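Give me a protein, keeping tokens residue-aligned:
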Amino acid sequence: MQVNEMSDATSVDDDPQADMYPTRSEAGEAEPFVRRDPVVHSLNQERWDGPLGEDMLSLYERDGFLWFEGFFSHERVQPFFDELSAMAADAELMESDGIIADPDTGELRSVFGMHRISEYFSELTRDPRILGMVRQLLGGDVYIHQSRINDKYGFKGSGFEWHSDFETWHSEDGMPRMRALSASLLLTDNNEFNGPLMLIPGSHQYFVPSAGETPEGNWKDSLKDQRSGVPDQHTLRKLATKGGIQAPKGGPGSLLLFECNTLHASNKNMSPWPRSNLFFVYNSVDNTPVDPYCGNNPRPGFLAERTTFDPLTMAPNSHLPWAAKL
């Protein structure tokens, strides 16, 4: 992997219409290059106006993710898993566009638009403990770009290829800059046997372009078996050799925050135990999507919010001392 420092970054930054992260070119592969955006977006004194101390902010800047084992109690997350079970049994809901079936088994794989389907899920996006960290990291007000549950049944659940979420959101949704992150809440145990999320620490510091143009309507296939936007093996090997691979593991209620450009993947679930994780994607209100950079039509609204960018407000009963500053 060679890293292109892109010495003309200043001139490109001055052009608001420029594509800051070109990818999926007809010409083929391009070399990875250093990201053009900060990792923590709060500046100066605002950097400390939130629940995260300098040690955690520096860790996020270095690795591209933060792990909080046992962030919520088991009792707090049980209703989410109950709702997931009810959804899987709802034949009409299973036929909707926002429900993705496993390509191998036909079982439930993903449910998108969770914050629209469930009030309980919607309230979680505004939990002061999570939203406080998100605002601090992204430097201000945020909205939900996407929400979903990813589910892997025991013995059946397929894996997810290595990818950067931002590469897809940029190319297919038109997200201009790296100013978003995902919050993943574990609804079941995630262990070494049932396909936990794997991340490459430090990989968020580089943008890895993908080869080949994006087929129109690519999302219909990529949600089941992703091919566009998957980094080449040579680059993955270099980044993993440099940063290693980590797979945070823990019980229900544990929380993972990971930067939008951090490379991640997961293996097939070969164990008897299910693996269910809830994801909320937070994006800055100053980073709303434009036309997709791949030149295709935008993906559906359940995959990428394009109409409502109202800033999220803290859930009721917030009394944390830093909340008023946000």
Remarks:
- The mean pLDDT is 85.
- The domain at 44-325 is CATH 2.60.120.620 (Jelly Rolls).
